[in-house]
Amino acid sequence: MEFVTDLIQWFPDNMWGDAGIIVRTIEHIQISAFSVVVAAVFAIPPAMFLAHRRIGAFTAVTAVNIGRAIPSFGVLALALPITIIIARNVPFLSTGLGFFPTFVALFVLALPPMFANTYTGIAGVDADLVEAARGMGLTSRQILIRIELPVAAPLIVEGIRLSTVQVIATATLGALVAFDGLGRFVINGFSGQDTTQLAGGAILVGLLAIAAELFFAAYLKWGLPRGIRDGVR
Amino acid sequence: MITLTDVTKHYEGATTPAVENLSLTIEEGTITVLVGPSGCGKTTTLKMINRLIEPTSGDITVGGNSVIDRPPHELRREIGYVIQHIGLFPHKTIRKNIATVPHLLGWDAARIAERVDELIELVDLDEEMLDRYPHELSGGQRQRVGVARALAADPPVMLMDEPFGAVDPIVRGKLQDELLDLQRRVKKTIVLVTHDVDEAVKLGDKVAILNIGGVLEQYDSPEVILGSPANDFVRSFLGTDRGLKRLGLFPIETLQLDTGPFVGVGATTAVARSVAQSHNSEWIGVLAEDDTLLGWSPVDSLAVDGVVTEAAERFLSWVDCNDSLRDALEVIISSHTRIAAVLDGGTFKGIVTLDQIYAEIMT
Amino acid sequence: MTTVVAAPLIRWDWVFRNGDKIVERIIEHLILTGLAVGFGIAIALVLTAIILRWRGAYGPITGITGLMYSIPSVALFAFFVPITGITILTAEIALVSYTLLILIRNTIAGLDGVPNDVREAATGMGYTRRRLLFEIELPLALPVIITGIRIATVTVIGLVTISSLIGLGGLGQFILQGLTTFSSPIGTTKIFLGTGLSIVLAIVIDLGLVLVERLVTPWARRVAN
After folding, report:
1. DSSP structure class, residue C168
2. ipTM
């Protein structure tokens, strides 16, 4: 019982300050959002292009399978020595610790779901629809932008959702490589055997992940044009 | 064999019943076709017989026993069932598919194997099909397997729900012929649902025409229904070519055939000319010594004095004596001769004329 | 720009000297995975049976398991440590909760994917509800169900590494040890080893399950001619 009261008390006690819940949450969101956006830039356009040309289907399938098989913890750990080597050789990156390895790991993990979903989304657009568009005189580029992209939108958003939730989860482990974020509470809780901090951090990470889920669920439900969301879902 | 007494089916939430107070007696060993527009409750009626749909009220008996008193799964094992998409089990071989009901009834393996061999022969499929899976067969072959599966436990009754709806027209015609041929051998009580009048007329010994809400508008043989439709609904449902459809029901062999302007090869041209004249014909048909058709020649081209030899032209306007009057009419109106020669397996039997067909329509 | 790596990233001699330890970690990893997937399947079966009996339970059950699915496993590990301690139970709670949604959703989708005409024909020929489920519907749903098991297993193999944070973790132990000594060549060797073997394990088991699927669904193997 004491644990529960301690836990409830922990939140207000640790809300403010340089190492408080607010700051840690913002850090967590920052690195997650940054990683997802950069990964989206690298994953979605190539997938769009390849799927539009109907090439590289095998790559898309492999991306899903490999993406699932890669342990996020391992990628994060691998990012550490690799970024240190990079940092040693690139003068302006003074340190290989903290933000950079965490970002590299999250970036790598965010790529496969977005690539695969964008690919299947666009490659799965009804061939009749594309043919009708071509018959009406749309150019290849117009077909991609005006037809395939909107129709594939729900699946692409779904891919971004998968990436985001995984990135939020893995960012927690960033504390192991000297990044802060909400993982700081969890990892410090582990190492200091501070169960209150451990559970408090866990709850915050869980809430953030669920918040992200709800955000995307809401977007899929209300943010898309009506014809697309009703037709595809 | 099957009786429906005041059967009503009222689906929950529907304003009007799908079938209301329907009474129908289906005779043993016949094909009875339920036909009507969509929404007429024909499929609902069919499915109430094997209780895939439970009637709201009324009674149905099969072989004298009410279907309501029995556990549905036991009842269904005694009634063959064929549906439009057949529903072969994709994970079982053709052999296992055919053996479904015997397996459910707990027959021993030897008896099942023997029965499967009989059935595959009955529906005219190759034995090597038995170890294939359904997706390895063509649509027509799958349909035959569906029929074999329905017949497996030798049920006295077979229900067929749009059984040929999913195959192309050429295969459909062939499968219909096969069903009629099969029925001649197995003599089941078959209830078949279709929305296609031509199919109903072709297959049914009796046809029940249903209107929206399961109203029975007419229940009789196709000949009677086509000849004297009970009301305007039936008339419009049968379509404007009702008379032609009816002609399709009568085989040519029922007619008294005329001999026509035909002579044997080797007859003198004088005889040929007089035969043609007596039939008021400008051509003369030539038969071989075994009464097979050799061809025809214009009377003008016959030698003045000699014998009829090889005919000049091939004889194209002919029908087989098993064909229908509708087939004969078709041949007559698309030929120069204005008659159709009737053959029985190649042997000349006589001719049929437009007048004869017209007389038949009038009866 | 000065040059490159002084020491090799992987010290193969260390790998060869520690073969027995590696095998031990692999076995631990497999046990943790097997337990999670095994219990996951058992619980998913019960929940699926409930859904089949009361269709209305589908929404609530997938809602709750969906929530469990989206909570990061490291958060679940951390949350349950104060309650269940640093035990295998803590790890399994998190891992099992991760499998449920995938397994249930695929099983139901597989059963729903059985063609209606097959179901109607079977019922029309006198299958009882139970025999229909076991002899027709479940076999036909097998490919989709096995796909669910494949996804769950591969995901769990990756997640098991994280349980090294509470002293378990099989191959994850190599990764964690490597992290604490990351500046040494042995450290990077351990990270590579843990990560690489986890991937290999996932791929091998995935392929194994593909093989199982092919064995239990002989009808799907032959292509239409």
Report:
1. -
2. 0.82
* Cβ–Cβ gap C5/A183 under 8 Å: no
- The pLDDT tens digits of the residues spanning B323-359 come to 888 888 888 888 877 788 888 888 888 888 888 888 8
d(CA B291, CA B272): 16
- Is the pLDDT reported for residue A26 higher than 60? yes
Q: Does the pLDDT of residue C225 top 60, yes or no?
A: no
Q: Cβ of C117 and B74 within 8 Å? A: no
- Domain boundary (B247, B273, B301) is at B247
pLDDT tens track for C112-147? 999 999 999 999 999 999 999 999 999 999 999 999
CATH 3.90.1520.10 fits A2-232, yes or no: no
Rounded to 5°, angle at Cα B13 from B10 and B17: 25
Chain C: give the shortest CA distance to residue A144, in Å. 31
Q: Is B272 in the same domain as B304?
A: yes
Please report, for residues A107, A116, A155, B292, the alpha-carbon distance to residue A162 in angstroms, rounded to integers and kept in the order given.
13, 11, 10, 81
The size of chain A, in residues, is 233
Following DSSP, what letter does each residue of A104-125 receive, concatenated? HHHHHHHHHHHHHHHHHHHHTS
Ranges B192-196, B261-265, C5-9, most confident: B192-196
CB-CB neighbors (< 8 A) of A71 in chain C: 157-159, 161-162, 172, 175, 194-195, 198-199
Nearest-Cα residue of chain C relative to residue A173: C74
Q: B344 and B356 in contact (C-beta within 8 Å)?
A: no
Q: Where are the strands (E) in A34-153, listed by range?
A: none
Q: Structural domain of residue C159, as residue ranges?
A: 18-171
